[in-house]
Amino acid sequence: MVRSVREVFDEGQAAGRLGVPVAAWRWATGSGLVPAGDVGPGRWSRAVVEAVDPEQVRAALRGIEAGVAADRLTQALGVPLPILRPRVTAAAVGHLVKAGLLVYLGGEPRFPVVHPDQVAALCRRRDLPALLDQHVPLGPDQAAVRLGVRRSDFDQVVRLGWLAPIGSVDIDYKHHGGVTTVPLYDAQDVALLEVVRPSVDWRAVRTARPGSRSLLAALDPVVQGQDRVLLAGVARIARVGRAAVACWRRRHPDFPDPVAGTDVHPQFDCGAVVAWLLAHDKIGVPTGPTIAALVLAGANGASHRFRLDDPWLSLADDAAGEDTLSGWSTDDDADELAALAAGDFGASLRRLTAPGTGPLAVPGEVRVIDRFRSGSGGLRLTLAWPAGLRGTAGSGPAGGAVRHGITYAGPGEGCVCARHDCGGVVPVSWCAEHGEAVAPVLEWHPGGGIRCTHLSRARSLTAWAVRQTDRHNR
After folding, report:
1. Which of 179, 226, 282, 381 has the most CB atoms lying inside 10 A of its own CB?
2. Contact 273, 234 (CB under 8 A)
3. Kind plus residue range of the DSSP H or E element containing 462
4. Is the pTM of this model over 0.85?
């Protein structure tokens, strides 16, 4: 009797033929050490299997548990973890395996063993936050963190019909109630809520005080299947004018058709409109909060770096006013900031980088004026300083104010500001940046802040222009 020879192998048979663990073969195929199945998905010919070096396959295998991988992915999101970002869980690693972003090496499919090198490569990707939003669903508590609100506020979002579960998972709480079915929500839909519902003051919702009634409780839920928007509503979602939306509707045949309303005031399904806007890059999914980076120096001159999430910078138009900066912070950073600003003259803001403005610096008198603990547990700080001290930060990473004079209240003979009646400036004869090489001055311009101007250079240019004019007249 002639014994048949196997010519086609699946992953288990290939691993058995080489005498290596199945997990090693999975990693070898997932990492490219072994070519993809040449006779179909997950199936290899005898020639391919026998050409593989078993020792090389065995040596490449290393695995870590899903919990370890989750901790490394969480750390990659930022330390400290940014507000609006829940921790990555072991179950999330299972979803990343389902999405093909990690290779399943074994263990329970919900909490798989994965390769540390592949996790490290995923941690280095700049689009990691977007990948998590796209492939990892969130439970109610995680969704509340992603939105930056209290759990009670998120429950109101569900009540309003703005979000619906996309699935569920059974969790065994052992001695705390047994098995509980927890709904899961699409993380991308959660992140888009701030875009899709622009009429909601999300900043106010996020800063709700503990125990206070949700601002969303007064809103009426949408009727199931009737979440509709007018053209003006589409414009608010896309942050454009109504005319732009009307133009899109004319130019794009795939723009959603009205589901109600009239020819003059058509109504569109909100979900269909949002999907169209995403597909045509008219809106984007917020991947996380904006961040302000600031370098402060205390009385001893040592620099300290801090981070504020979701910053809100308010610059005064008047030099006699006050600038404020608020943002979410950690308890340790908040304590250190307060200690730096506790002196008689406050702290010096050597460099502030915040969205919407150029790098700022403040020579002194920066102080913490408010520490606010929201109902969701976040700590929001507010810093303030006299607007008249605001300056442009130096180009170096440590910053430092570009300053060449000191402001004083009210105009006078000493004022050398050439453009605006801005309260006046007193020139100084020496500057830390330029020494005595120039005759600089500090100049206040409403809306543009304080900036350096080299009057000696300006005067030389003026003199040159006068000479050119005289020569032309002659």
Report:
1. 381
2. yes
3. helix 455-473
4. no
